[in-house]
Amino acid sequence: MSPRRLDPRTRAAIIDIAARLLAEEGPQALTTRRIATEADASTMVVYTYFGAMSELVRQMVHEGFARLQRYFTQVRQTDDPVADMALLGRAYRHNALANPHLYAVMFGGGALGGSSLGGFALTDDDRQHGRYTLSDVVECARRCLAAGRFRADDAELVAHQMWSAVHGLITLELGGYLIAPYDAERCFEAQLVSLMVGAGDTGEAAAGSVAESRRRFSAEISAAGAAGPGGGAHHSASVPSRTGRRPRPRKAASAE
Amino acid sequence: MSPRRLDPRTRAAIIDIAARLLAEEGPQALTTRRIATEADASTMVVYTYFGAMSELVRQMVHEGFARLQRYFTQVRQTDDPVADMALLGRAYRHNALANPHLYAVMFGGGALGGSSLGGFALTDDDRQHGRYTLSDVVECARRCLAAGRFRADDAELVAHQMWSAVHGLITLELGGYLIAPYDAERCFEAQLVSLMVGAGDTGEAAAGSVAESRRRFSAEISAAGAAGPGGGAHHSASVPSRTGRRPRPRKAASAE
DNA sequence: CTAAAGAACATATCGGCGTTATGCAACAAT
DNA sequence: ATTGTTGCATAACGCCGATATGTTCTTTAG
Question: I want to staple A201 with a disulfide (CB 3.0 to 4.6 A). Which of A76, A196, B107, B148 is the partner?
């Protein structure tokens, strides 16, 4: 009675191919025909395994959030929760810069654009699933409050502010709007400190914690990222083709 | 010797039609065929007047920034520069919510998406033109610094932080990610206060100024928006058709 | 007033897109 | 061995952006 009788390995292989196309050549390369070519199959694979292009994209968006979650998990909880919070921000940005096109689809390809990627649209459930990733940030905000570093009384609200501010900076960065001398790096560092001060921390303490998070970044985030492109990422990206069935000659090669 | 021998009124009419389609039916309605139908002409109008679909979109993006600029101009300069700054934020959001699809194209349709709207892409000049809109915010930040309300020493950096934070909240709002009890309204109000505190203002002063900006909003921004959809906006959106030339029968209806 | 030159446009077409209908080949169950 | 199901290739449909071609109208020159 399993609703999925299809080979999950083939399914994963297609997602891998699609993710690679999106990452390496951008959204305009993400077409059924292109995917079919890469998978050495016909365009039907997309519809047999996903029903529509939009569903494939949704699967990739889910994977994108999972990847972000994996980065968050790598942030240690120390006795300086503000530094932890800043490091969560760095992890968020690192993930976005590592997968810029996917990030764009996650937050810009949905209800906003509507047109991009074959008019696919996220469902409310998809967005709820995305918001769930915030729970790590909420938990960290709670610790900041408990430590007396943040003045506000609503950890979830603080988390939303951190999220939207960092997200805004990143979209501007990806859109090419942040150029020298006010480049993304500089704005981001300043933003982190201001965010902490805005939440209630003192200027000195915030600057210190942000600096500390910068030190921790390479060890906890940048090094040994969050798995490979696919997720599990250890299936060679090729469709098994069941029994190695060959594309029967049918009318032979009489195309000319 | 004017490089444009084409009728500028027709050009404006096409932009109007395109802007209306984008606003009312979203990006997927913005096609050469649809525009041609609305203008009672052939798809060639787009190529005769703009060369390509992407150029038409770029023109609309420019118009979008001009409209934002017009909203900014309506913010009075008072002796409470922090309230002025908060009101600039409200004006920014008001513009984005009044033209959500256009806003999405301005910041999400360019280098980010790549695919949406026929793979058009903003040039560096376009982005620079967009960034120029920030000058009002920079000037306001300068006044905040001069009044001793902000502690930071770089007005332009502060302006960038205000921009990216508000922009981030708005993209999340348009993307449907801000839902009760942490809806966009609540997050925005909190964000404004935190932004001012993060820039150096005290909690009490910031809260007061943000509240003051909320009072000024309806009078200075929301009422009598910033002109109509087109810009000048007083040409009836119809292509003059020069002499009312009829689509000649040519071969009559002998297609079979 | 006429005739050449050029601008604006409609038509038809090309290649590519997402998607679907059809039918065949391989498997599973009897 | 027969039958039913499943997975997929092929071909097609209706869109899309873009372009080549040729006709008509406007402008200009004589």
Answer: A196
Is A84 in contact with A77 (CB distance < 8 Å)? yes
Residues in A touching B112 (Cβ below 8 Å)? 100, 104, 108, 171, 174-175
**Strand, coil or helix: what is A157?**
helix
First to last CA, chain B: 47
Closest partner residue to B198 (CB to CB) among A171, A176, A198 is A198
CA of A253 to C1' of D20 (A): 32
Nearest 5°: phi and psi at B129? -60, -40
Residue corresponding to tokens 């609200």:
A157
Cα–Cα distance between A171 and A193 in angstroms, integer? 19
Q: How far is B138 from chain A (nearest CA, A)?
A: 13
* The pair of three-digit structure tokens given for residue A49, joined into one six-digit string: 């395994």
CB nearest to A175's CB, from B107, B116, B179: B107
Which nucleotide shows the minimum CA-to-C1' distance to residue A117?
Answer: C18
Answer yes or no: is A118 CB < 7 A from strand C.
yes
Q: What are the φ and ψ backbone dihedral angles of A232, each rounded to 5 degrees? A: -65, -45
Q: Which residues in chain A have Cβ-Cβ distances shorter than 8 Å to B127?
A: 175-177, 179
**Distance between CA atoms of residues B228 and A54, nearest Å:** 35
Q: Does A18 touch chain B (CB under 8 A)?
A: no
Could you read off the pLDDT tens digit of each residue along chain A, which spans 256 residues?
444 578 889 999 999 999 999 999 999 899 999 999 999 999 999 999 999 999 999 999 999 999 999 999 999 999 999 999 999 999 999 999 999 999 999 997 654 544 455 567 788 888 989 999 999 999 999 999 999 999 988 999 999 999 999 999 999 999 999 999 999 999 999 999 999 999 999 999 999 999 999 999 999 998 766 555 544 444 444 565 544 444 444 433 333 3
Angle between helix axes B155-174 and A155-174 (nearest 10 degrees) is 100
**What predicted TM-score, i.e. pTM, was given to this entire model?**
0.89
A108 lies within 8 A of chain B by CB: yes
